[in-house]
Specification:
The complex is a heterodimer. Chain A is of the alpha/beta class. Chain A contains 16 helices and 18 strands. The chains are: A alpha/beta, B alpha/beta.
Chain lengths: 427, 410
């Protein structure tokens, strides 16, 4: 059912299957705590716009999450109906409702209060938008800084076949009235200025820098860091040229996006290599299946050791691995290379998708932990009046988690600005 | 990372659904019917806090009335996978007598002065009816509903016999009640189990009472265990007739309300089978001024009020109605007698692009209609225009929305 919108009849029938659990597990599992049984009962009673309003009350990126939220790890994974037969297609119902609202025109919101305080949000991705919308509900004047159009990761690197621009825009258009968007690249100087001008700042600039893999030949022509690849494939799909044979290195969702994108761009063979086994992959099953369906070959227990080629990529030299019983910090068994197991996979392009780090280089003053911005339970950083959320505090997460962090941070900012909480964290 | 749950800030305005009916200001058209949900102070409190506009406290009587309950009392009419298509009960009136109900009324009116607090009463003798009315008026009720229609029968009547099944008893008792009331409107809750509902409504009108509550549960035999022949609900293999409520009885109530409204000029409180905001719109469109809910609340809880309010608000906006009151009676001019119906040549039309090839319409028409549907080779159904009379059966056996349409044959 991936990527299909339900018809009115399908939505009604599916909604009728919902048990309407009290204090429902799905609602608890959703990071933004959308009142799921309530919006489903509204769909079943024919109040579709009411249903859309329920989702939008809790989640600022309701259309984006309705389209691509990995429900299998959140709401749907705990659906009570799943204990009886199969879980309710919660995300599909959610998307059905929000898209009906888009067709009809956004419901009018009530006037929000006005407080005479200004908050800056740096970064217009899911976390920044989630925070900005929540702050504007409290009545703050919110300025959102971003160098490009609002959307962040969903706009720049999530492939268009998973999330169309118009689906993202059905959220960003709705949100645009509630804060002002400042198109500006924030650097050290601008950041200093922002701190002076605003009562509080929320940092949500995400990651944005590809992690190097650290093998010989990494800089060779034909080796593509994944973000760079996905961003240019999304911005200019026609100008993006790939060779016939593409190898992707990585084991997360971004690597699957890259693999599926490479396939769509016309690569004949797309091989994804991962140094552990399928069990250790941090991916959503639906995406993995989708990638396989598209003809992506996934090879496990393989570690690349060098790029092969003279001027440009001709292949990648790999070693087989085996898993130790011992586990690393992530709780997964540690892969070790098997001596003498070298082999070469022919490739015209190698896409490196082994993770990202924070690109912003103007944040020296803000304390980090394991490379990410360190925050306390109220999203406060080590610097007074500066809060942070999204991928920059916890690494690559889901959109819904980022929206939730933005929302919760907004509440913490509100408590701070209304004097209920100290400005500085214990960090 | 844990995501603390916090109270959402409402971002959509609450539409004003308030209006006046029977001289009472209702904040919305949705009222809790006299039932277990209104038998306990805490429960009504919760219902009010969640947004119900009013409640009719479960039927009470004078101290001497014995309320001899037996259990289990609930049962269900399961239909094609829907477990509670109809709900049955062999409950009686409240075990709380007038003292307790009087106290509940006082507390509720003090805490929720803007809500409609009503009581439901049942008695046998004139002095008891009148005594109940006087005490409740003093306690501060906004309205009194009189149960003339408990499916287990009225006090002082033969078992299973309801007051509202006798025109003379209805009129006489209604007069006693009206006589005793000085301040608040009286509504008589009637049963659809009569030969002519219009005559009953006229009797109530003659009595001078202010309104009718239409209508009570349907007397029903909820089921039989085909191995033990014990009826449902089984109490050691024995049972009695239940009062059935819920979605299964909605069309019966709709007809009852419509028939009264078409013939007698008397305000109606609608009840019996409404579960959703659109059910409420239907009830109001045939003449109900407000709608009482019971079964859906017993099934899903007071929280259903959120969709009732939201759905009604969006409906009013879409229809450009300024108040729920505008709905009242809207469908009545369209209900006519059979001989007044238009006689046109009708045909069914199958949108073949939507047909999924189940051929349910084919077999229904062949064995229950006019043998006017052919199966094409690809299983797609095809109407034979010569034989089709436009009866409409196929449209309703078709599992696909809007696949079959009934249209005029020109």
């Amino acid at each position: 059912m991936m990527n299909l919108t339900l018809t009115a009849q399908q939505a009604r029938v599916e909604a009728e299957r919902c048990l309407q659990c009290f204090d429902a597990p799905c609602e608890q599992a959703c990071p933004t705590h959308i009142k799921i049984p309530k919006f489903i009962s509204m769909i079943r009673n024919g109040n579709i716009i009411g249903a859309a309003e329920i989702t939008k009350t809790s989640n600022a990126l309701a259309n984006v999450c309705g389209k691509i939220c990995p429900e299998e790890i959140f709401c749907q994974s705990v659906c009570t109906r799943g204990k009886q037969d199969s879980p309710i297609q919660i995300r599909e119902l959610h998307f059905f409702a929000t898209q009906e609202e888009v067709k009809k025109g956004f419901s009018k919101t009530k006037p929000f209060p006005t407080l005479n305080k200004k908050v800056a949000v740096v970064g217009a991705g899911p976390s920044g938008l989630g925070c900005a919308f929540e702050l504007s509900k409290y009545g703050y004047l919110v300025d959102v800084f971003d160098k490009g159009k609002p959307g962040g990761v969903p706009r720049n690197s999530i492939p268009a076949f998973r999330l169309a621009d118009k689906e993202l825009e059905s959220d960003t258009k709705f949100l645009s009235k509630y804060f002002s968007l400042k198109k500006k690249t924030v650097d050290g100087k601008a950041f200093e200025q922002i701190q002076k001008l605003y009562n509080a700042t929320f940092l949500a600039v995400g990651l944005g820098k590809d992690r190097p893999i650290g093998i010989p030949g990494e800089k060779m022509k034909g080796v593509l860091p994944v973000l760079q690849f996905l961003e240019s494939a999304k911005a200019n799909p026609k100008r993006m040229k790939l060779g016939k044979r593409v190898v992707i290195v990585g084991g997360g969702n971004v690597s699957l996006d890259a693999a599926a994108t490479a396939k769509r761009l016309g690569a004949e063979s797309v091989i994804l290599v991962y140094r552990r086994s399928e069990k250790e992959m941090r991916v959503w099953k639906a995406e993995l299946e989708e990638a396989r369906k598209q003809g992506v070959e996934i090879r496990f227990l393989i570690n690349p050791v060098a790029v092969v080629g003279k001027k440009k990529v001709e292949g990648v030299k790999c070693r087989h691995t085996k898993l130790r019983k011992q586990k690393d910090k992530s709780g997964r068994p540690i892969p070790v290379e098997v001596k003498g197991s070298e082999f070469i996979i022919d490739a015209n392009n190698i896409i490196i998708a082994i993770g990202q780090s924070i690109a912003a280089d103007w944040l020296e003053g803000v304390e980090r932990e394991k490379g990410y911005i360190k925050v306390d339970e109220n999203f406060r950083t080590s610097v007074d009046k500066i809060f942070a959320g999204g991928d920059m505090i916890a690494g690559e997460g889901t959109i819904v988690q980022s929206v939730a962090q933005g929302k919760h941070a907004a509440q913490a900012i509100h408590e701070f600005l209304s004097g209920k909480q100290e400005a500085a964290s214990g960090i | 990372m844990e995501y603390k749950k916090f109270k959402e800030i409402e971002i959509y305005p609450a539409r004003d659904l308030s209006y006046n009916f029977l001289g009472i200001q209702f904040e919305n058209p949705f009222i809790l019917a006299a039932a277990p949900s209104t038998d306990d102070l805490e429960m009504v409190r919760r219902g009010f806090q969640m947004g119900w506009a009013g409640a009719i406290l479960k039927t009470t009587s004078v101290e001497g009335t014995k309320v001899d309950l037996c259990y289990p009392m609930m049962s269900a009419f399961e239909h094609e996978g829907r477990k509670l298509f109809g709900m049955g009960n062999i409950d009686l009136i409240s075990e709380h007598h007038i003292d307790k109900v009087e106290y509940n009324v006082r507390m509720l009116k003090k805490e929720f002065p803007a809500k409609m607090v009503a009581a439901s009463i049942m008695a046998g003798r004139k002095e008891d009816w009148q005594h109940l009315v006087e005490r409740l008026e003093k306690a501060g009720v906004d309205l009194i509903e009189c149960s003339f229609s408990c499916p287990q029968g009225n006090i002082g009547e033969d078992p299973g016999k309801m007051l509202a099944q006798s025109l003379s008893a209805t009129e006489l008792t209604a007069r006693w009640v009206k006589e005793a009331s000085k301040r608040v409107p009286i509504s008589i809750k009637i049963t659809p189990h009569v030969t002519d509902i219009v005559e009953v409504a006229r009797a109530v009108k003659r009595s001078g009472c202010d309104a009718l509550t239409a209508s009570n549960s349907i007397q029903a035999l909820m089921g039989i265990d085909i191995k033990t022949f014990a009826p449902t609900p089984s109490l050691d293999g024995k049972s009695t007739y239940s009062g059935m409520t819920g979605p299964a009885i909605k069309p019966i109530t709709l007809r009852t309300i419509a028939e009264i409204a078409r013939n007698v000029d008397i305000p109606i409180m609608g009840t019996g089978g409404a579960s959703t905001w659109s059910d409420a719109v239907e009830f109001m469109s045939v003449g109900a001024g407000v709608v009482e809910f019971c079964t859906v609340v017993m099934h899903y809880g007071f929280r259903v009020i959120d969709d009732l309010n939201s759905g009604m608000s969006h409906y009013l906006d879409e229809m450009k109605f300024s108040s729920p009151k505008e709905i009242v009676g809207k469908a009545l001019p369209n209900i006519v007698s059979h001989n007044e119906l238009p006689r046109k040549r009708m045909r069914n039309h199958i949108h073949e692009n939507l047909c999924i090839g189940c051929d349910l319409c084919y077999v229904a028409c062949r064995d229950g209609g006019h043998n006017a549907i052919d199966q094409l080779e690809n299983r797609i159904a095809h109407i034979d225009w010569e034989r089709c009379v436009g009866c409409g059966l196929c449209k309703f056996v078709c599992p696909v929305d809007d696949c079959i349409e009934i249209m005029e044959w020109i």
